[in-house]
Amino acid sequence: MAPYGSDDSTIAGESDDLRAGRRKAARYVVPVAVVGVAAATIGLVPALADSGDPDLPKISAQQLIEKIAKSDVQQLSGTVKISTDLGLPDFGGLESSLASGASGSGGDGSSADPSTKLPELASGTHTLRVAADGPEKQKLSLLEDAAEYSLFRNGKDVWGYDSKSNEVYHATDSGGAAREQRREDLPATPKDLTEDALKAVDDTTSVTVEGTAQVAGRDAYRLVVKPKQSGSTVGQITVAVDAKTGMPLKFTLTPASGGAAVVDAGFTQVSFAAPAASTFDFTPPKGAKITEGGAGGAGGTGGTTGHARKGDGGTEGLGQGFGQGSDGLNVIGEGWNSVAVFDNGGQGVPSGSGSGSGADGAFGGFLDSLGDKVSGSFGSGTVFKTRLINALVTDDGKVYVGAVTKDALVKAAGEGK
What we know:
- The protein is α+β, with helices and mostly antiparallel strands.
- It has helices at 8-19, 30-40, 61-70, 94-103, 114-117, 176-185, 190-198, 358-370, 406-416; strands at 5-6, 25-26, 75-84, 124-133, 137-144, 147-154, 157-162, 167-172, 205-215, 218-227, 234-242, 248-255, 263-271, 289-295, 307-308, 323-324, 330-332, 339-343, 371-376, 379-385, 390-394, 398-402.
- The protein has two domains: 5-308, Lipoprotein localisation LolA/LolB/LppX (outer membrane lipoprotein receptor (LolB), chain A); 323-416, no CATH class.
- The protein has a 13-stranded mixed β-sheet. A seven-stranded antiparallel β-sheet has the order 16-17-18-22-21-20-19. It has a two-stranded antiparallel ribbon with strand order 2-15.
- The longest helix has 13 residues, at 358-370.
């Protein structure tokens, strides 16, 4: 279906409205923030169902953005499928072993702590069941082989339960301003993810409505956000927006290099009826090991790295040139080509050559095999690549990270020297 029209000239002003109120400003590159949120939190967003294009009234990109901003769905339940493919090397289960060793038996943590469980969404394909009844009652269940992990919020109580290990994690939300801050810092719906993506909307961004689709049996518009600049690893972000409620049902981030989506997640079934009150009740099973996380929230999930509120010194949105955050982090460039820069304390990447020997030399050689050696006016270093995020670690310990190509990263490092 042909595009419904482009509103690039009016989108920049609309993005200012989306940043108002409770939405925080992005400190790093927005594409980086988007994929981090989608991978490490409750990424409530399936592939667009290929079941025919519904015939819907025409709508402009600006009107659809306004519809998203006004959406206020408080009650829902459904099933979500999320697939993440960053193109990372296969370490033969090393990541899982390290995670379980850090948080499971024999450690001080709990396998039911959401800060150690939800990062599993960073790779592979997962099925989740989700339910919500306002900001005080929420549930997410991660379905695994012969096991299930569930995360509950019911009033002030936050519970995590891992059926495989029979471990329980409990934390108490301190309420009030702290609870509101956590809702801002930890996006938990497709609407949140879409608002983060729309912070990229400026004169370096194209935003159009490109036809319609059906997701989970519901009619939806297709909102397409893509960089106008060359050099970004982001091809486009496609959001399926529910035609009736304005709630995003699906979020897909496709790399500029082509192939499968980096993040492809969304509802396969959804209902906007109020879930049964018992859905959010939880009582620790008999014999379960219970770990108390204290007040303030669940296991370190009270904030998302790479974000800052207005007024705290973080750069607001994209394209702030050589902006500097309160933690000393710099941002080079503008728009989708922004690159975050920080100092690693003079420590470059260990090398497998030279005087290194034994385990240190072997480890350095392993890292060498994962990266590409580069040089420029900044000196020399190693670029580590994924299908979306690339990082340059210089030999003098500077780190440059962005959703940009290797050449763009090397160029940014030279300009920032």
